[in-house]
């Protein structure tokens, strides 16, 4: 089997298992009365504080300082998307020295990640980069195909097993895709972990779910169990159900988020030409609801209620956090054509912003 053919088989398996592809003949959001009352309003009316101006200053400073030495470097203006009236920056200098608080990014991945992680074999470049500046990062493994409720318990157990460090909390939970609602459920259900958490960040988080999940089936995600080298299992079989908009919005309606924590939102809002070719199908399907999507989630469904909005990122859903093209360049060249993104700089900017923001009084 040729390289191109093997690449196509690998991507077909990932696409079938991890992409939420809806049937073209069915509405993505079917008629239903099984929903809490909803209102699509400007973020400011949902308690969201817009600090994109300051985050742009921080991110641009990081990119300028680290420069092309970082993988997948992009100029700042190309790394972020300007949406609406973005606030001006503060004009304050950006501290690019050693971290004072030594924040630790604990990342919870999305659906299916544990199945293809051995194949992906992601480099530890983000961890290596962050440690130069007194930060750190680690991946918190959860069931690849289980529900958010199931994974919330795993998050709780993993955090409680970590050494309790002296001083102010240092853990910054970063939830990518389904990892974000997994984290939110853990924060609500297990108050004992909150004193250990400095902040929570949603990165392309499926906070409000995805319409693509409405017609998706769990067995489609379960195909990832047969991916070469996969060691994942079906878990409780609730992964897809947890991503349906009715599930996520009903959960949000019934579970107010703890007010003693700080929440931040990074939203993927790619220009259409920044969507990889393999993701165009799901991007186009989701565009039947709203073309302002990252191929998996609509931009307004990625914001945590009451959070601080940090940025709209010019990257599709995979480019933000899944470095396929770095470890499989042939697949990147043929299918995952827009996968390059300066993730190291982005994570550093997130931690620097959070550290600066935590030093200010809570609102």
List keywords for this structure.
signal, 14 helices, Alpha/beta hydrolase, Rossmann fold, 10% strand, 7 strands
Structure characterization notes:
This protein is α/β, with parallel strands linked by helices and 363 residues long. It has a single domain (3-24, 47-358), classed as Rossmann fold. Helix content is 35%, strand content 10%. It contains 14 helices and seven strands. It has helices at 3-18, 52-66, 76-79, 113-120, 125-131, 148-161, 179-189, 218-222, 245-254, 280-286, 317-321, 324-327, 329-334, 343-358, and strands spanning 49-50, 104-108, 136-139, 171-176, 197-203, 263-268, 308-313. Strands 1-7-6-5-4-2-3 form a seven-stranded parallel β-sheet, with helices on both faces. The radius of gyration is 19 Å and the shape is globular. The chain starts with a helix and ends in a 5-residue tail after the last helix. It comes from Paraburkholderia guartelaensis. InterPro entries: AB_hydrolase_fold. Residues 1-24 form the signal peptide. Keywords: Signal. This is Alpha/beta hydrolase.
């Amino acid at each position: 089997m040729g390289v191109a053919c093997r690449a196509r088989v690998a991507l077909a398996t990932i696409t079938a298992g991890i992409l939420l592809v809806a049937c073209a003949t069915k509405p993505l959001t079917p008629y239903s009365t099984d929903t809490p009352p909803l209102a699509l309003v400007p973020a400011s009316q949902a308690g969201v504080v817009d600090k994109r101006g300051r985050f742009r200053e921080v991110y641009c400073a990081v990119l300028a300082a680290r420069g092309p030495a970082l993988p997948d470097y992009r100029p700042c203006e190309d790394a972020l998307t300007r949406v609406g009236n973005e606030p001006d920056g503060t004009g304050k200098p950006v501290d690019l020295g050693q971290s004072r608080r030594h924040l630790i990014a604990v990342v919870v991945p999305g659906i299916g990640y544990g199945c293809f992680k051995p194949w992906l074999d992601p480099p530890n470049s983000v961890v290596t980069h962050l440690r130069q500046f007194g930060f750190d990062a680690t991946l918190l493994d959860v069931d690849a195909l289980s529900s958010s409720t199931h994974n919330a318990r795993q998050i709780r157990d993993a955090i409680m097993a970590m050494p309790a460090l002296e001083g102010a909390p240092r853990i910054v939970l970063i939830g990518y895709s389904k990892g974000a609602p997994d984290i939110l459920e853990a924060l609500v259900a297990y108050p004992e972990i909150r004193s250990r958490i400095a902040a929570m960040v949603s990165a392309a988080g499926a906070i409000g779910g995805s319409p693509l999940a409405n017609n998706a089936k769990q067995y489609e995600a379960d195909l990832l169990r047969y991916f070469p080298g996969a060691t994942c299992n079906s878990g409780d079989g609730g992964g897809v159900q947890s991503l349906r908009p009715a599930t996520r919005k009903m959960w949000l309606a019934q579970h107010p988020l703890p007010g003693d924590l700080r929440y931040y939102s990074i939203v993927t809002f790619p220009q259409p030409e920044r969507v990889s070719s393999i993701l165009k199908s799901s991007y186009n399907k989701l565009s039947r609801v709203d073309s302002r999507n990252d191929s998996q989630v609509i931009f307004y469904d990625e914001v945590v209620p009451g959070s601080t909005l940090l940025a709209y990122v010019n990257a599709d859903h995979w480019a933000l956090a899944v470095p396929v093209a770095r470890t499989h360049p042939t697949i990147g060249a043929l299918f995952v054509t827009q996968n390059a993104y300066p993730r190291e700089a982005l994570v550093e900017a997130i931690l620097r912003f959070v550290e600066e923001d935590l030093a200010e009084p809570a609102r």
